[in-house]
Amino acid sequence: MITTTGLTKVYSSRGRDVTALDGVDLHVREGEVFGVIGQSGAGKSSLIRCVNLLERPTSGTVTVDGRDLTALAGRGRRASKDLREARTRIGMVFQHFNLLSSRTVEDNVQLPLEILGVSGAERSRKALELLDLVGLADKARSYPGQLSGGQKQRVGIARALAGDPKVLLSDEATSALDPETTRSILQLLRDLNRQLGLTVLLITHEMDVVKTVCDSAALMRKGKIIESGTVSELLATPGSELAHELFPVSGDASGPDRTVVDVTFHGEAATQPVISQLSRTYNIDISILGAAMDTVGGRQIGRMRIELPGRYEENVVPVGFLREQGLQVDVVDPAAAAAVPAQGPALVEEVAK
């Protein structure tokens, strides 16, 4: 639904160039909730503003729902008209709501329809329908100053949906809200994603947002995508920074004659007593140094840091056992395993012999 290829954005500031986006390739599938996460200055907001051409990329392409928006951003009336039409299929929700204080809630939702030339009666019908969808039907005659932050954001979401978009862009839409309100807004976005078949691209600096609502995610740093994929793929990727941030575990990993590994559980393995099975099967004492578990996309996923007695080469078979159960196993001190090649069933069998 959304593809960027070689996307670059360079700003000129006080006689020097600042690169906000540096060759970004992004692929968001139809109907998914995709989160882009990174610290301030990573280029997240520039990316989302380039997706709907609020910012014109310096180079590269942006394709949304099969249309190359960068090709529509040329000069001339026709190009501008085509780009405006394409933008009506892309809704956007902002961090600070951007509501007009002098207009009622209903009138704020009507604004995009008014710009599109929709008749008054149809505007009102549509606005009330959308307010009902976001749970604010009783606030239609209120003004933004009479609403809480969460209610204002719901109005912003209703307004973003006025043009019946296929894509909804969210630029830090929950960062100005308290945790409880954040959860309710994220649940609303997920509900809209499912009910309307919306593709949602959201920008955030909070890992909990990715954990709560996203099907896929990308990590940005210094204008580049460092890694991306579905959350389940990332959790199964050795050394994934996103996986580590989603499920951080701690525990002292130093000391001689022991092996410390991080074990990631997902799918059916998350409900199985794998660690106790390992202990019984190989008659070894296992210490649990730390653990974190949560529900992502309706599935339990977690990570545990455990300590096995003995050096790494003495634990190849137990580690192989864990991997055969469908678990992702990462050695916390890779230097300890430097002399041992990647473990697979063949190596496990060889060592067992």
Describe it for me?
- The protein has 13 helices and 14 strands.
- Mean pLDDT is 86; it is low at 336-353.
- It is α/β, with parallel strands linked by helices.
- Helix 4 runs parallel beside helix 6.
- Strand 1 and strand 2 form a beta hairpin.
- It has helices at residues 44-51, 69-72, 77-87, 105-115, 120-133, 149-160, 179-196, 207-213, 231-235, 241-246, 274-282, 316-324, 345-352; strands at residues 2-13, 16-28, 33-37, 59-64, 67-68, 90-93, 167-171, 199-204, 216-221, 224-230, 258-265, 287-296, 299-309, 328-331.
Beta-strand percentage? 25-35%
Q: Tell me the Rg in angstroms.
A: 25 Å
The helix content is 25-40%
Distance between the terminal alpha carbons, to the nearest Å? 51 Å
Mean pLDDT: 86
SSE topology sketch:
Blueprint (H helix, E strand, L loop, with lengths): L1 E12 L2 E13 L4 E5 L6 H8 L7 E6 L2 E2 H4 L4 H11 L2 E4 L11 H11 L4 H14 L15 H12 L6 E5 L7 H18 L2 E6 L2 H7 L2 E6 L2 E7 H5 L5 H6 L11 E8 L8 H9 L4 E10 L2 E11 L6 H9 L3 E4 L13 H8 L1
Parallel strand pairs: 3-8, 3-9, 6-7, 7-8
Antiparallel strand pairs: 1-2, 1-4, 4-5, 9-10, 11-13, 11-14, 12-13
Helix pairs in contact: 4-5, 4-6, 5-6, 6-7, 12-13
Keywords:
353 residues, 28% strand, disordered C terminus
Summarize the structure.
The chain has 353 residues and is α/β, with parallel strands linked by helices.
